[in-house]
Design a protein that fits this description.
Chain A: One of its GO terms (cellular component) is plasma membrane. The complex is a heterodimer of chains A (206) and B (136). Chain A is an all-alpha fold. Chain A has one domain: Up-down Bundle (Four Helix Bundle (Hemerythrin (Met), subunit A)). Chain A contains six helices and no strands. The radius of gyration of chain A is 20 Å and the shape is elongated. Chain B folds into two domains: 68 residues; 58 residues, no CATH class. Chain B starts with 16 loop residues before the first helix and ends with a helix. Classes of the chains: A mainly alpha (206), B mainly alpha (136). At the A-B interface, helix 1, helix 3 and helix 6 of A face helix 1, helix 2 and helix 3 of B.
């Protein structure tokens, strides 16, 4: 940081280094690719909507209450993650830690519920190999769940780095990028909630 | 203090209203989607159109209110904000083409018995083929 870059005191730390700025822009490009990745999984799920074969239908197994709890946990975690970034921009490291740890706890709660949901389905006779429909279901929801798992691990490691090195232009760019990733997981979940669960229940009802 | 028109400095206030409003609107949109799906008795097609509009609105809320998509890293230039927004809009376009295109081409999702119709059509075609074979 010995460069002659002059910054207004109000410029957020994550935008103060050239690397930070480029990494944030690059991460948005990565998120565009993630949208394309998830769109192929949504296409597969929707195309295979009625291919339940001899297995159970989603109408028989989907339970609204569990899905709503998962939705609420992830949406709230996205909100608390936003607050954490707000605190970081106020240079409040303690606030950043408190809200990020709440975010991770809510994310872990979401993951726990999802694992419980998967185990329940398998016990009721719907595993990944039961029918084309359930393959599509477990792949899309599982891919999202894997992203949440990676997000929790990644943010935990970044928080450890912030605890050791403090809030610098380097560490805060990392925190900001991981927050983009976490919000993006909620964006994907909005579409899973709508296209996988609500659509599945509507189409198999009629 | 900072110039209130500067989007990068607005974050310095005490209560992050942008986030609070985004969160409340997200909850309202989720509740409305549930209500439309289970309580209104609209046709399946109408329900699907409405809940997907709600999903896109809620995604836009996340991108704009929580993720600061339009925010640029340089104060004097809108370049990075515009690049980010353009990139995500293009990705959304690709996603819609992939999903709507696949569903349309594969013929599922239009009605519950579509695939039965397709099966019987295929059977007809097979029978036609058999008959032609016999003629030869």
């Amino acid at each position: 940081m010995a460069h002659a870059e002059v910054h207004d005191h109000n410029t957020p730390l994550e935008y103060q280094s050239e690397t930070g700025r480029l990494n944030i822009l690059g991460f948005w490009v990565f998120l565009g690719a993630e949208i394309a990745l998830f769109s192929t999984l949504f296409a597969t799920y929707l195309v295979l909507m009625y291919r339940t074969g001899d297995g159970p239908t989603p109408h028989e197994l989907f339970e609204l209450k569990g899905v709503l709890i998962e939705t609420f946990l992830l949406l709230t975690s996205s909100f608390t993650c936003g607050i954490a970034i707000h605190e970081m921009r106020r240079r409040n490291r303690k606030g950043l830690f408190i809200w990020m740890i709440i975010t991770l706890a809510l994310g872990a709660g979401f993951l726990g519920y999802e694992i419980y949901e998967f185990v329940t389905y398998v016990h009721e006779g719907a595993a990944i190999g039961t029918s084309a429909f359930w393959s599509g279901f477990f792949v899309i929801v599982g891919t999202h769940g894997l992203h949440v798992t990676m997000g929790i691990a990644w943010i935990t490691l970044i928080l450890i780095q912030v605890a050791r090195r403090g809030l610098t232009p380097q560490t805060s760019a990392k925190v900001f990028i991981s927050s983009l990733y976490w919000h993006f997981l909620d964006v994907v979940w909005i579409f899973i909630f709508t296209a996988v669960y609500l659509t599945g229940m509507v189409l198999h009802n009629g | 203090m900072a110039n209130p028109q500067d989007s990068l400095s607005r974050e310095h206030g005490g209560i992050p209203w942008k986030h609070v409003i985004g969160y409340i609107l997200s909850i309202i949109l989720t509740a409305l989607a549930l209500w439309v799906t289970f309580e209104t008795g609209f046709s399946t097609r109408t329900i699907l159109i409405i809940i997907f509009i709600f999903a896109f609105l809620q995604a836009a809320l996340q991108l704009l209110m929580f993720m600061h998509m339009t925010e640029s890293s340089e104060k004097k230039s809108k370049l990075t904000g515009n690049t980010q927004t353009g990139n995500i809009l293009f990705a959304a376009f690709v996603a819609i083409v992939i999903v709507a295109g696949s569903v349309w081409v594969m013929g599922a999702g239009h009605g519950k018995h579509d695939h039965h119709k397709m099966d019987s059509k295929m059977e007809d075609m097979k029978m036609d083929g058999d008959m032609k074979m016999e003629h030869k």
